[in-house]
From TrEMBL:
Domain Gfo/Idh/MocA-like oxidoreductase N-terminal per the UniProt entry, residue ranges: 3-118
Domain GFO/IDH/MocA-like oxidoreductase, chain residue ranges per copy: 156-216
Taxonomic placement: Bacteria, Pseudomonadati, Bacteroidota, Flavobacteriia, Flavobacteriales
Matches recorded under SUPFAM superfamilies: Glyceraldehyde-3-phosphate dehydrogenase-like, C-terminal domain, NAD(P)-binding Rossmann-fold domains
Source organism per UniProt: Dokdonia sinensis
GO MF term set: nucleotide binding
Pfam families per UniProt: GFO_IDH_MocA, GFO_IDH_MocA_C3
Name recorded for this polypeptide: Gfo/Idh/MocA family oxidoreductase
InterPro entries, sorted: Gfo/Idh/MocA-like_OxRdtase_N, Gfo/Idh/MocA_Oxidoreductases, GFO_IDH_MocA-like_dom, NAD(P)-bd_dom_sf
Amino acid sequence: MLKAGVLGAGHLGKIHLKLLNQSENYTLVGFYDASPEVRATVSEQFGYTAFDSEEALIEACDVVDIVTPSTYHYAGAEKAIKAGKHVFIEKPIANDLEEAEKILALAQEHNIKGQVGHVERFNPAFMAVSEMIDTPMFIETHRLAEFNPRGTDVPVVLDLMIHDIDAILSVVKSKVKKVTASGVSVISETPDIANARIEFENGCVANLTASRISMKNMRKSRFFQKDAYISVDFLEKKVEVVKMKDAPENPDDFAMILQNAEGVKKQIYFDNPEVPGNNAILDELNAFAKAIKENTTPIVSLQDGTEALRVAKMVIADF
């Protein structure tokens, strides 16, 4: 069992504390929060051990789970890595690219494992079809949320869109060629609505929309590739897969057949895999424990987190 501690006991930090305490892969040693009031309240309410300093918590751990605001990610990661501790860092990996690159370099220097909390990679709907997504050429995503003051200290790109950026980068095996974007601030000091067009060197184009002032919640992505259309509903945990194959010479009466202008006939069929229920945050934490124990690369590596942040910053820079 890996001894784990949590830095930051806010809304998400409390969720991580609960799940680490439940996991069969970790022993929860406790947490640290910069607020004495939060430390006292969380300790009294849930019974978790509150440490008086970051350093004391880090010393007691094998794995440090960093769930502080992103402006403090680098400081916590630096202390943990220099102490030889593995780090799980909530998304985004850091506040800026310079800090992310420093985290990468420190991790390599001290030979530690690191994973970034891009939890949608562990969404069961995405996991059910991710291996079916093969060289997509057009991707469309919509991530819309009702207004919540929590998270509005950063642009909607870092708050919401970065989830889709990371998922797209994981399936498009090509470098980003060009980014064009627009963003609008409605109620926050930073953009609340954003749209981005990402062009890749292999010709793939991704169109991403994110909003945190919508009337309803939506988290959908659509992937278009040769002979297939794949839709992922991250919110409802549903998938839709529509494929085309060469039509048989004698199709049955219920077969859906399309014929193009050249006379080529294709049969449409549905291949919708089962989507099992899961707790994505627990799964990502357990996957990190597995990577540490088996000495493998984490599913969402520090490099992945850095690349997602790099593209997100390209989007923001084009506003």
